[in-house]
Write a structure and sequence with these properties.
single chain; 273 residues; alpha/beta; six-stranded mixed beta sheet; four-stranded mixed beta sheet; 9 helices; globular; binds fe (ii) ion
């Protein structure tokens, strides 16, 4: 019996996280693995990690996180924005890992059939900080409290003028792709950033939510028949329900976060099967 598993936020620049990745194993030879972004910052280490996982799992399905999209000073690959994303997609294709640019694979094991759709959508600052009504106010609030996502320095939107324009273009393209899925099929929607705002309501710093998604996808779990919506980014692993749809946060997160928890990280997380 095969299982569709998911994991995100492996952040392999930390040695303790690399040890956990070394222990990530399928339970049977037909298992699939979703990797929902934030493998790491350096293209070479993202590739090495995905390659290792692909050797173990029958299928690996990747969606980018913000960290893969950073142009980090330590990375010999200094591509920015869309060119960086395109290079990541090309690299995945070389190692037989599915990306948001590929045809959606259909899970036919238990809990299926379901089209497994990795999505690259980014965010548009519409999950605004408390008491603010525009992007400018929301960002100003974050700069006042000092809770500002590093994306502001390292995630370049080139050739778009800003990250929200890139996000809106991704939302439009992705909407067309999802609308073309056979309406008889359920879906597993996979995005590094949650499709719906509700998971961000427990953030310790609510102003961080503006880097976590877009209101434009608020009904996608219903519109596109999701049996599960898989995400990461928040580093708050848990299961929630929205309109009867299961939302699964599947992150590992930073060692300083998971070390303090009573139980060791239970990864990968079972999604179907
Ligand atoms: Fe992360
Ligand atoms: Fe992230």
């Amino acid at each position: 019996m095969s299982t569709l598993y998911a994991v995100s936020d492996l952040h392999v620049s930390y040695a303790e996280n690399r040890r956990i990745v070394d222990d990530l194993q399928p339970s049977s030879p037909g298992d699939w693995l979703i990797v929902a972004g934030d493998v790491g910052e350096l293209l070479g280490s993202v590739e090495a990690t995905l390659r290792l996982l692909r050797e173990r799992f029958a299928k690996v399905i990747w969606a980018p996180g913000n960290h893969e999209l950073w142009t980090h000073g330590d990375d010999p690959v200094q591509l920015r924005g869309v060119r960086r994303y395109d290079r990541l997609v090309e690299m995945c294709r070389e190692i037989d890992v599915l990306t948001p640019e590929d045809e959606y694979a259909v899970w036919r094991g238990e809990g299926g059939p379901a089209a497994v759709a990795p999505l690259f959508l980014l965010y548009d600052y519409s999950f605004r900080a408390p008491g603010t009504t525009t992007k400018e106010e929301s960002l100003a609030y974050a700069y006042r409290t000092g809770v500002v996502c590093t994306d502001e320095q390292l995630l370049h939107p080139d050739p778009y003028p800003d990250r929200e324009s890139w996000c809106w273009d991704r939302v439009e393209r992705t909407e067309r792709r999802l609308s073309a899925i056979d309406p008889a099929l359920r879906t597993v929607l996979v995005s590094h950033w949650p499709l719906h705002r509700h998971p961000t309501e427990v953030l310790w710093y609510p102003e961080f939510a503006q880097w976590c998604g877009t209101e434009r996808t608020a009904d996608w779990h219903l519109r596109f028949r999701a049996t599960a919506a898989v995400y990461g980014h928040l580093h708050i692993p848990r299961t929630t329900w929205q309109d009867g749809v299961r939302f699964e946060e599947v992150s590992l997160g930073y060692p300083r976060e998971w070390r303090g928890r009573p139980a060791a990280p239970a990864l990968p997380k079972r999604i179907l099967g």
